[in-house]
Amino acid sequence: MKNLFALVDCNNFYVSCERVFNPRLEGRAVVVLSNNDGCVIARSNEAKALGIKMGAPAFQHKDLFRKNGVLVYSSNYALYGDMSQRVMETLGRFTPRIEIYSIDEAFLSLEGFDSTSLTEYAHLIRSTAKKWTGIPVSIGIGPTKTLAKLASKVAKKYRKLNGVFDLTDHPAMEKILDSVDVGDVWGIGPRYRTFLVRHGIRSALDLNRAGDIWVKKHMTVMGLRTVKELRGIPCFGLEELPVPRKGIMSSRSFGRPVESLEELKQALATYVSRAAEKLRSQRSAAAIVHVFLLTNRFKPREPQYGNSSTAILPIPMDYTPNLIRWAHRQLGKIYKPGYRYKKTGVFLTEIVPRDRIQLNLFTQNYPHEKNRKIMRVVDLINARWGTDTVRYGAEGTQKEWKMRRNLLSPRYTTQWSEIPVVKSE
DNA sequence: TCTGGGGTCCTAGGACCC
DNA sequence: TCTGGGGTCCTAGGACCC
User: Residues A25, A393: contact at Cβ < 8 Å?
Assistant: First the structure.
């Protein structure tokens, strides 16, 4: 049967989430900032029209924001995660096969659906999502994921399409591909864009017509797959099952520079407990702990230092206190006094399923049943009452290094009102 | 004062083995 | 005349995604 994909993309997702609970934001220029209130990571159409770029540092635009009455919010991931789940559940009603691709995008398989009424169906999906969740979405349809993505860009670009565009067997395919900048093709980032333009490849159509061997030579097999997908030959399938992470990272920039080892250890302990939580939630254990720390690269006049250190654990672990001990040990090896640090973090790798840990002679009863029970209770309580309800002494209580979130909206959906159901094992 | 955080995949090249 | 060569594993680095 013929492949057929729909890409559903939430419009200006974080801004749309804020708008659902604060209708005053409708029709206004609104931006949402990254952690630490650093960069712009979501913009309403009105904000885009003011020329505010994705990733723009917020402090450079203070004047512009004030002059134009731009409403500025800290990112509220508890809210966005919850809204995302509602949108995905809604989309799941319209197809038996769905891939949740990111917090604000999903691929739907439309294989076997009546191809003459797909646009109509997509309009129904779109209006239902809006009605049930308040979030506006755009939908692109195509025979490959790359073309569905491209179609969704077209759907956003032309108002009269009402947020839906089907590129499948389109009579004006070439003209449409020619109207799309090569850098807007899924898989073509800024580096490749520069390179391609230098070689006269400016549009998606140019790329579609590029030679296979040349593409493979300069852009690896991944680039070649992208080109084939542009020609309608599917190279990327629907990934319905979440793939267990191969590495789990947790790190944050500090709200202010941190110099003491004591405070770095507190911050690192906090990140290790987040990472360990994620590890346990996918029922895994990690055998390698990488720790890194960095000064602020945007302050060239301050002395710069960055380093990392890796511990190979005697056996894969998921017990937070032990992981904190190992992380602290590595931090001690790379910490140098006299620097103003901006960031530290942990990266867990060599991840294996928890119940398939290779035991050795010295670890007969591993993992210890008591530790496992403690972790289960801690995870349950934190899932129910919010991260940080139970935490470790090593994380500290003052947390003066915590990131800034001065412009946070209330936790509309996740505070008190909802108690997640936790499945027993 | 002030510039995010988390992932994926691929390739080249070195080490090592036979 | 003319410094073996092929396979495998690992790591660092570079590209991409949202």
Answer: no
| Protein residues contacting strand B, judged by Cβ under 7 Å | A 34-36, 38-39, 41, 55, 57, 59, 220-222, 243, 245-253, 256-257, 271, 274, 278, 296, 298-299, 342-343, 345, 347, 403
Contact call for residues A354 and A284 (beta carbons, < 8 A): yes
Q: Between β-strands A137-142 and A164-166, what pairing exists: parallel, antiparallel or unpaired?
A: parallel
A321-324 contacts at long range (C-beta below 8 A, 24 or more positions apart): A321/A392, A321/A394, A322/A371, A323/A272, A323/A275, A323/A276, A323/A286, A323/A289, A323/A348, A324/A268, A324/A269, A324/A272, A324/A273, A324/A392, A324/A394
Q: Output phi, psi for A248, to 5 deg.
A: -125, 125
Distance in angstroms: CA A249, C1' B18: 40
Protein-proximal nucleotides of chain B (any atom < 7 Å from a CB): 2-11
From the CA of A358 to the C1' of C12: give the distance in Å: 28
The pLDDT of residue A393? 81
Query: pTM score, two decimals?
Result: 0.90
Scanning every strand, the nucleotide with its C1' closest to A104's CA turns out to be: C18
Burial of A301 (0-12, 13-18, 19+ CB in 10 A): exposed
Residue A289, φ and ψ in degrees, nearest 5 = -120, 115
Tell me the per-residue pLDDT of A118-175, one tens digit each, with 9 for 90 and over.
999 999 999 999 999 999 999 999 999 999 999 999 999 999 999 999 999 999 999 9
Quickly tell me which residue has 């412009």 as its tokens.
A407
Res. A423: pLDDT tops 50: no
Region A163-191: what's the mean pLDDT? Answer: 97
- In the structure, how far is the CA atom of residue A256 from the C1' atom of nucleotide B1, in angstroms? 9
- As a whole number, the mean pLDDT across chain A is 90
